[in-house]
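Entry 14. Ran structure prediction on the chain below.
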Amino acid sequence: MAKAKRSSRRPSRPSLEPRAAPRKPPRNAPRSALHVRLVAVALGLSGALVALALALFGWSFWRGPGSGKVLHFEVQPNESESSLVGRLADSQLTASPRLLRAYLQLLHGSGSLVVGKHVVRDDLSARELLRRLARAPGRSTARVTVPEGFNHVQISDRLEQLGVCDAEDFRRAVRDPAHARELGLPADSAEGYLFPATYELLADSTPRAVVGVLVQEARRHLATPQEQLAPGFAARQSEHGPTAHDVLPLPSIIEKEAAKADEKPIIASVFLNRLSDPTFRPLRMLQSDPTAIYGCLVTEPPPTSCSPGRPTPAMLRDASNPYNTYRHPGLPPGPISSPGEQALRAVLAPAHTDYLYFVAQGGGRHRFSRTFSEHRGAIEQSP
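Output, structure tokens:
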């Protein structure tokens, strides 16, 4: 019987070395490609937005469509951006409403605009226009010179022409008794305290803020001569009233009457002599034309005798004008202009004269007289 042969092969032993798992196609490959595409799209959009923002930023500096005309524009409460931009376009304040709206949305924000009236110009860039409407600190400024002898009406016109504030609102702020009390003034009006100087004022400021700046400057400048000339200040107070305010009307009149600085103390002596000389007729009448003219500006309603230009005989006879110093003795109810330091010093330390009259002689000069007959001769010789 044949025997089965043994196999020479030994049974294989299981390998102890790990075997690599079979590779499978990555399931997230499509997702990674989509992610890359989305990132690329996002970067492209971001770049486009940045490019648009840069283009709008550059455009915002372009000059506006007008020629520099001063305009008034009112930002209304709860107004939509489209309505606001439409009204700006209707007012000829922008030639590109779409670009202005995009700039407003992307780079500025309509929520920062201040509700109320604004003073703007039709040649402002979009950037400056919106800064003014927001009353932003970085908006432009205007260099404003207030000459000696300007009254608040003249100052208001200059402020509006230079785009600082609305003229009518400034006049109301000056003559607002409540605002005068807030500023600590001993009067119902800030007239006389709007100090003549050169100011750097923010464009489109609130009138009350501008009044405050001018009054602060007056306090700073008028305190020095009052302290230096204390005896004269005390004398004027005893003669004309108990407060510092009662000393200001006469300097404000001198600013309107005197063109030359060296004549201010002489003209001050004339008015002080008229107030105190018992021989002057009518008694204690200053007889100053500018006071009657000022009364026509501030009296409501204006006296019927008032007319534009030079004062008429009818205006100087009209007793219904409280500022008419031909019909009312003593000082007028308040200052009629903004006096400077020289005019105040002239009243606190006047020239020593016996003059009672003066008349213009041309070139800003005057001829002074003691008697009315001398004065009449000077009038005949005047140009």
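The beta strands are 70-75, 116-121, 141-145, 198-202, 357-362, 365-369. Will compare against last week's run tomorrow.
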